[in-house]
Every structure is written in C-alpha cells, then in structure tokens.
Write a structure and sequence with these properties.
Number of helices: 18
Shape: globular
Order of helices and strands: EEEHEEEHHHHHHHHHHHHHHHHH
Bound molecules: s-citryldethia Coenzyme A
Number of strands: 6
C-alpha cells in the first residue's frame, strides 16, 4: 500500500484534534486512514454494510459506479468479453498481465489436467437427498475438499497456494456439474481434456453415456462469456467473506466454501435464480405495472430482482453484454420470441422510465438477463447460482492470493456500537 500520505484530514472531537492521513488511489475516491483512530481518539467509525469503507487495497478490479465501468487489471470488461476468453481472463486476474501464447498454453494445460476430482468424492455427493439445492451440495463438497487435497492447504507455502488456486479453478465446473447430475439422477460425466473450459462444463452437464455429445460452439462461446462476466467484482459480499475467512489462516478450500455460502443469498449471487422466478411469476407484459408498484411500496418486501446495485449508479456494463448475448443465444436456439425475454425487456423499459428507479439510480445488474440465457441453454434455475459460483472462483482465489501476500495482512476483527445491557447481577429463578 502507498503509505505516503500527501495530505491529511483534521478530526476534532470535543477539545481534541487528530490528523488522519489521506491516500490517493490510481482510480476512485481518496481514502481516510483511520487505523489509529481508536488508539488516538478512543472512538470507532460506524458503517453497517460497509457503504463508505475500504477494507483493503487491491490492484485486481476497479468499478466506476457512476460511469458504469468495470476494469480487470485495467482492461474494460466489454473488451475482455468481446476479445478474450475465460481462462485468459483467469490468468489476467491471477497474475496481473495478459499472458503470452506460451504462458496461456501452459496455464490452460495446468487447469485442464486438474479438472478431475478425487474418485472418493463421489461418495460425499451420495449423502445428499436428490432434491438438495445444488448450492447446498457445492457448499458442502467444496468445504470438504481440504480433506481430499491436504497437500495444498498450507497457506504459508506459495507453491501450495498456487496448486490450490489451480485446483479450485479447474475443479469447480466438475463439482457444479456433478451437483447438477446428482439432482437429476443421471450418472456423473467425467471431464474431457480435449474440450475447452466452457465446452467441458456443457459436456459434464448435458452428456449422457448412451450417445455422443456434440458441443454447440455458439452455446460454448455464450457459456464462456457468462463465466467471464462473473469472474471478479472488487470487494463484494462473497469476496469480502473469502478475505475475512482467510484472514484467520483458514485453508483455501474452507475460505472458498464460505464465499459460495455467501454468494447463495438472493441479494447477491442468488439474484439470478430469484430474477428468473420473478419474471416467470410476472408472466406477461400486462402484469408489469403491478410488480413495479410492489417494488416501490415501502410496506412490501418485494424488490425487482436483477435491479439495483451498491456500487453501480448507472448501467452495470456486464448487463449490457449479457442482454446482447441473450438476443444472440435465443435467436440461435429459435426461441427469440421467448415471452420471458419480452417481459424482461418491457420490465427494464418500464422501470427505467419510472421516477422511483431513476431517482434511486436503480439499473439492471449482471443478474437481470443471465437467467434468460441459462434457461434457454437448458439449465434449471437451481443451477444459475452454481454457475455464478464457478465463474467467481477465480475472483475469490485472486483476491485471496493478493491478501495472503500482503505484509499488512492481519485477522479481520470489526468492533460494534453496543446498545445492550450494562453489567448487572445474576438473579435466581425464584426471584424473577
Ligand atoms: C450482485 O456487490 C457486488 O458487486 C455484487 C455483484 C457481484 O458481481 O459480486 O455485482 C453481484 O450481487 C448483484 C446484485 C444482485 N441482487 C439483486 O438484484 C437483488 C435486488 N437488488 C437489491 O436487493 C439491492 O439493489 C442490492 C442488494 C443489490 C443493493 O442494495 P443496497 O446497496 O444496500 O441498496 P439499498 O438496499 O440501500 O437500496 C437503496 C434504495 C432503497 O430505498 P430507500 O430505503 O432509500 O427508500 O433503493 C431501493 C431500496 O428500497 N432499492 C430497490 C431495489 N434495490 C434497491 N427497490 C426496488 N427494487 C430493487 N431491486
């Protein structure tokens, strides 16, 4: 971190003043260094939900929420979605630069040759009911991975950190596909080294032993693009969960399992499933005003899923790419007259024209269109968040590696504004 503060802020509380250093980033808002606030002034800051708090410094991803810009190591997401592919973006996020041809070939070889999982992990799946949500299975199986791969759990060994990172990126699609196959009662399909990352995932999900499976290259491209669009996103809730879990020195598999669990929530990665279910509930364009009214009603807990964002106060650039991809995929599949897509487009138009959403700067986010594509590709809604989780694994892993290597790394331990009882004496039950 650049500890060279060029200026500072003076904080005066009662008759005491302290200087708080201000650091300037390469992009985004300045930060106020409050690390000495409690020791010097005896007060905490108060920021539930961390709306104004930088938890770390990072060089991986930057979001300009006003402009609606998302950069991975400085490269705009729309350029990466158009010109790159997921494993190349993984290399960029992990190592900081776009790879040469030789570097990319080596990276893809290493990932490809780690896609199988320990054969005994299959027994672990069989402990779940068939109707278990795939995210429940993934949270359990990923948390158990440290028991199957104990040789890459020492976070103080850079080589083991590298092996764990490659294993996570390589094995998440296999585990997600196994969770899907298990819930539909079909046999697991092994990964194939002759297929690219996205094609391999489609094969593990949709191939059956009774016939050859041919991957549709357009669907594979769309799948790869969805992986890229979900790869990383600064210090979102699940990434912050992974960082907090790893700050205690927990093994990488346990930390990623914590991230998967956090992502599952409907306010976060679970929104893609909730959004498609909302669009299905709306059903027809004529019911849109009813749901817009509900979303605006303070007494109704209903919110437009796939809308709004803590950081974006403009279009989420990923949503723009996703919307274009939805048109392409549905046209290819001959379902471009899909009523749900029409409802989504009309809902977006109605919401953006409504002062409530305009004033609160609520725009479609990454989850608004992704479910439409995934459903058209043949995935059930329960697989939407697992696909988000496997895509985001590289972001979690990259941020985890950055944090572990940071000499400032220490256990995360927030304080609180305590409003409970002050000290009082125990009373016997007879006297209560
Ligand atoms: C992801 O952080 C990330 O980067 C996440 C993510 C990533 O890649 O990691 O981008 C992925 O999680 C995208 C977001 C997916 N979630 C949803 O689509 C669920 C619906 N959206 C909302 O729940 C909400 O917008 C959040 C959770 C996304 C953001 O919540 P904030 O930042 O805490 O905003 P807020 O709840 O304070 O909302 C501000 C105002 C409120 O009204 P007031 O209290 O000021 O009157 O806007 C309203 C909210 O009621 N509002 C909505 C709304 N979202 C916010 N009203 C109706 N519908 C919505 N969707």
């Amino acid at each position: 971190m650049s500890d060279t503060a060029k200026r500072s802020a003076k904080l005066t509380i009662d008759d005491q003043s302290i200087d708080l250093p201000i650091y300037s980033p390469t992009a985004g808002p300045d930060v106020l260094d409050i690390r000495k606030l409690y020791s010097q002034a005896g007060v905490f800051t108060y920021d539930p939900g961390f709306t104004s708090t930088a938890s770390c410094d990072s060089t991986i991803t930057f979001i300009d929420g006003i402009k609606g810009e998302l950069l991975h190591r400085g490269y705009p997401i729309d350029q990466l979605a158009e010109n790159s592919h997921y494993l190349e973006v993984c290399y960029l996020l992990m190592y900081g630069e776009l790879p040469t041809a030789a570097e990319l070939e080596d990276f893809e070889f290493r990932v490809t040759h780690h896609t199988m999982v320990h054969e005994q992990m299959m027994n672990f799946f069989r402990g779940f009911r068939r109707d278990a949500h795939p995210m429940a299975i993934m949270t359990g199986v990923i948390g158990a991975m440290s028991a199957f791969y104990p040789d890459s759990t020492d976070v103080n060994d850079p080589w083991q950190r590298e092996v764990a990172s490659i294993r996570m990126i390589a094995k998440m699609p296999t585990i997600a596909a196994m969770a899907y196959k298990y819930t539909i009662g079909q046999p697991f399909v092994y990964p194939r080294n002759d297929l690219d990352y996205a094609s391999n995932f489609l094969s593990m999900c949709f191939a059956v032993p009774c016939e050859d499976y041919e991957v549709n290259p357009v669907l594979a491209r769309a799948m790869d693009r969805i992986f890229t669009l979900h790869a990383d996103h600064e210090q979102n809730a699940s990434t912050s969960t992974v960082r907090l879990a790893s700050s205690s020195g927990a093994n990488p598999f346990a930390c990623i399992a914590a991230g998967v669990a956090c992502l599952w929530g409907p306010a976060h990665g679970g929104a893609n499933q909730a959004c498609l279910e909302m669009l299905q509930e709306i059903g027809t364009v004529d019911r849109i005003p009813e749901f817009i009214a509900r979303a605006k009603d303070k007494d109704d807990p209903f919110r437009l899923m796939g809308f709004g964002h803590r950081v974006y106060k403009n279009f989420d650039p990923r949503a723009k790419v996703m919307k274009q991809s939805a048109d392409e995929v549905l046209e290819l599949l001959g379902v471009d007259n899909n009523p749900i897509l029409q409802v989504a487009k009309e809902l977006e138009k109605a919401a953006l024209a409504d002062p409530y959403f305009a004033e609160k700067k609520l725009f479609p986010n990454v989850d608004f269109y992704s479910g439409i594509i995934l459903e058209a590709m043949g995935f059930p809604t329960s697989m939407f968040t697992p696909i988000f989780a496997l895509s985001r694994t590289v972001g979690w892993v990259s941020q985890w590696k950055e944090m572990i290597a940071d000499p400032q790394n220490k256990i995360g331990r927030p304080r609180q504004l305590y409003l409970g009882e002050t000290s009082r004496n125990y009373t016997d039950i007879e006297t209560r």
